[in-house]
Amino acid sequence: MLNPMQANELFTQMTSKAVEAFSLCADANQKILRELVDLSAGTAKEGARLYTELQSSAVEAVKDSQSYLLRRQSELQEASRDPLSFYQKSVLESVEGAQKAFHLLEGNAQTITRSAERLQVTAEQAGKEIQATFAQLAGKVKAAYSPIA
Fold it and tell me: What are the Cα distances from residue 87, in Å, to 74, 80, 93, 95?
């Protein structure tokens, strides 16, 4: 049976270990939250970069379509004089327009792929840091609660 002095000492040791464990968990939570905040910030930054690149591509496409419409208006006046030449130019411009559209889609797909790759790298780094934090926490908790030999 424990005397009151031994019981008090045991209670103090248990309280001390519990406070130490809470402190270790709080530190680990802080590190994990920091990683998650960094991941969120990186994701937002990457989203803004992607939006900017896609938007500039869309603006370029609109400029090309406007210049095409302006050219077509001036060519329509010449169409009555030489319909065969007008038809030939129309076919060539249609093919060029289709090629430009496919290049635009290909460029956008590459942009999205690069963005996804950067996000994947960022997420993997955050995951590794979080795993390392849990491994450190487990080691510290084991050390704190291991019996003294």
Answer: 14, 11, 10, 12
